[in-house]
Amino acid sequence: MKLTTTNRRTFLKTSGQLLIGFNLLPLAFCQTKETENILIDNYSGIPERPHIDRNLIDSWIRLDADGHVTILTGKQELGQGIRTALIQIAAEELDVDLEICHIINGDTGQTANEGYTAGSNSVEGSGKAIRQAAAEARLVLLKLASEKWGTEITGLQVKNGVIQGGPDQKISYWELLEGKYLEEKISSEAPVKDHKDHVHVGKAIRRDDISKLVKGEPHFVHDLRLPDMVHARVLHPPVYNAKLVSIDLDNIKDQVGILKVIEDGSFVAIIAKRDFQAVKAWQQLKESSKWDSSKLGPLSEALFEDMKANANPPQMVEDSPGILGKINSSSKKIKADYQRPYHMHASTGPSCAVAKWDDDYLTVWSPTQGVYPLQNSLADLFGLEKEKIRCIGMPGSGCYGHNGADDVSAEAALIAKHYPGRPVRLQWMREDEHQWEPYGSAMAIQLEAGMDESGKILAWDTNIWSDTHSTRPNGKAGHYVSARHLKDPFEFQKGGFSGGSYRNATPLYNIPDKRLQLHNYDGPLRTSALRGLGAYGNIFALESFMDELATEVEIDPIAFRIKNLDDDRAIAVLETLASKTGWDSKGKKPGKGYGVAFSKYKNSASYFAVLAEVEINKAEKSFKLTKMTGVIDSGQCINPDGLKNQTEGGMVQSASWTLLESVQFDENGILSKDWSSYPIMRFMEVPEIEVHIINRPELPPMGAGEAAQGPVAAAIANAVFDGTETRVRELPIKAEKVDWGNV
Amino acid sequence: MAEWLGRGLQNLVQRFESARDLNKNKETLFSFFKEGFFVFKWYLNKILFFNIHVLFNASPSIPCYAPLKIDRFEIRGINGILIFHWIQNNMTVKAQLDLNGKRVQVEVDEDEPLLYVLREEFGLNGPKFGCGLQQCGSCMVLVDGEAVPSCIQPCKSFEGKKIETIEGLNTINGLHPLQEAFFEEQAAQCGYCLNGMMIAGLGLLRSNPKPSDNEIREALEPVICRCGTHTRFISAIKKASQKSAKF
Ligand code: FES
Ligand code: FES
């Protein structure tokens, strides 16, 4: 007996005794929350179709559904508000209201390949493409209307997607298109609007997704509930490179709800009906497993010494022959060594992904920063053609770089392969996240400079020791930790060190002679991209050193910076900071410390200057960061509130890294496994935050998401020095590093 | 009831899927045979037959359980088959919960923390798994007006208490003042921590509708936000406190 129906969604298979089928079930019995939540994005106005060529308008802007605009971007929403900003840009050029716009983020089945959402370049990159496509779309539509009416384009006007010619000439974009796609090429000749005519760009448009979040509507990949979905956990080894010796799987197999236990080399995972059943089994597996592991090292105490002793021979990034001679012959010269420890991304929500195999087709719903790189790397992992893999980007918990998002996606796919036909949801446990994410590398930075009597810097020499800041799995399965644990393991090939290590190491200051050498180092911990990459450590060092130089010649730190700058926008952020904070009247006050710092992120993106204020409590031998004021210039500002929000967040996060954080480990593995062994900044310690924007609507927008990380670290160090006379050069800046006898 | 059956059906589908697997994988048969099915077939709103299938026990050492008693139920739709299955398992417990003003019942593993039940049984998204260690506050719910984590305490221990989540805040006329304030202040970046912030804030506003900055900080201290949105959360709660006198 088999009941066939036209609209059933679920196929039920035979069990031997019963042959069953359903119809009308969704109607009758499935009106529960669970089924309502299956669709995360409730706008289904356009049918899915692949993008063909990134040079076509259709790859970015679609007007398929009557009265709606769909924008496509290859970039992911990471909490930075990119969806809203890109909608503003498109709506601006198209002359439509924001309310009718929708956006689809990275999906290999639909959107263009825009690589990774990283390096603060989404608005610069995707925004530019979308702006051009939207302008082109508008032009194409105007041409259509002018042909239809036999009028000149110049006489036409557009209001919310309706073109108006003469008194009774009125037609909407959608009526004009009659269901056709915008398949024209983007000529880049379509004029974009003058910023003076902007109505959406530059406005503090509220993010619509926040209105959904406050109601508890599904949003994250964690909230995805697909029909017949099952739940998985993966048992990671206790430490890098450990090999599984034995594990008691039999006990687990009999447990209620356990659907599958997977053991492939040292890769162990379970699939269960319910999430908690998987968690319970994971706990038991963890307890019953025995591993053979080698010792981790060098340990924290010896790390920086080892870096200097065992790094690769230096790579000359920027040379200036005879620089040391120039420094030595300068009338003022100093040298200093700075350090930053390993830091974590430490996302609030653990990494999570859903994967499903249908025959040899794989679909992965992932919080990755790049759906196409994920597709490439999964193709390598499974030896499968890319075309058989679809990666759909979904929001995850904020990632701030390469965290566990890619690993969990690959693991979900590995696990789902053992349970085909069913979506498998894998969520990491807190300790998986803390122990297995790739950290921001520890770094040592040595700076040496010479000045003349007046405080003009003449020569500057930089040496950096660092592990890599990028091991993103762009096409290489060996970059997934679990791929290395399989019976037939993939090998991890570091693939050279990236330029991320010396990001922002070259001072923007006007210095005639500069040298930069990089000493690449293979450290004990897994590392990759963390917000700002090497810029965080490099700017901490550079801007702390600027303060040391200013102290040496006894010049006000802002004046000293301006003296050595000839970039007007750099000077403007510093001057604005001084005026907004009443810098000139701050002077020296007992029990207070003030510190400033500045950078132009990547020396090519946003300008950011910051003042940190600390309160010193000599009796208790402690200090408190009380306030930070930032000034940012990101060129044309698309959404001032979004820019502020992201900058405030970057400032607090960097303050947390700078004051509190350092990944702890011993020879048996990572010790920072949760929030008590890796404390981050919470409310009682969060300072007051103020952000000012210098908007330059006439200039192109520039990346801003990582601008605050480095300067905040240096500003705090400088403030602590100002208040205590102790120069802390080793992060994190803790009260015990201050020489309290000297205060 | 509809919800209950809906869930039963979902489990059923999974059961049958695993049954297919079982033929290959004999070890897991036991848990499967601890259950049975009611089968209904109906046509044009009439029940044609009602059958109980007890799946017989393969092993004599495992007792065969009687089906649960079902008092009343409704079937809508025109025709089809409905199968309702039961599981008898000595590790499961029944819990009666007062969730967002409704009385609901679940039957789950006795150790299962409330968080999993809220997300999986009731499809809620507000409470989230962050650490499972009562360290981060992502999973906060309001219990008798107080913000508490839900990631460790078993579901059963919440019986007789009033449980509220942010989903319960929506009013017929739209957003609750707290939701409004969070939206207006644009208090979120990724938003993963938002639930904890709102619940911790609500717990505070219930007992102290006009809190000071410091009281807000203290109340939100248990909740982690890695995006650094803290100052906006403080402003949002302040704003909410100005919007309403009672929460
Ligand atoms: S998930 Fe409950 S406190 Fe972190
Ligand atoms: S907004 Fe991302 S964790 Fe708080």
Task: Describe the fold and architecture.
The complex is a heterodimer of chains A (743) and B (247). With 743 residues, chain A is of the alpha+beta class. Chain A has three domains: 8-213, 2-Layer Sandwich (Aldehyde Oxidoreductase, domain 4); 227-293 and 345-436, Aldehyde Oxidoreductase, domain 4, CATH 3.30.365; 311-342 and 440-742, 2-Layer Sandwich (Aldehyde Oxidoreductase, domain 4), CATH 3.30.365.10. In chain A, 27% of the residues lie in helices and 20% in strands. In chain A, the strands form seven sheets. Chain A has a seven-stranded mixed sheet, sandwiched between helices. A five-stranded mixed sheet of chain A has the order 12-20-19-18-13. Chain A has a four-stranded mixed sheet with strand order 21-22-23-26. In chain A, helix 3 (82-94) runs parallel beside helix 4 (122-149). Chain A starts with 24 loop residues before the first helix and ends in a 19-residue tail after the last helix. Residues 1-43 of chain A have low confidence and may be disordered. Chain B has 247 residues and is of the alpha+beta class. Chain B folds into two domains: 7-89, no CATH class; 92-243, Beta-grasp domain (Ubiquitin-like (UB roll), Roll). Chain B is 31% helix and 21% strand. Chain B has seven helices and eight strands; from the N terminus they run ααβββββαβββαααα. Chain B has helices at 2-22, 29-33, 114-120, 177-184, 194-207, 213-220, 230-243, and strands at residues 35-43, 46-54, 80-87, 92-99, 102-109, 141-143, 146-148, 162-164. The longest helix of chain B has 21 residues, at 2-22. The structure holds FE2/S2 (inorganic) cluster (2 copies). One FE2/S2 (inorganic) cluster sits between chains B (188-193, 225-227, 229) and A (79, 348, 398).
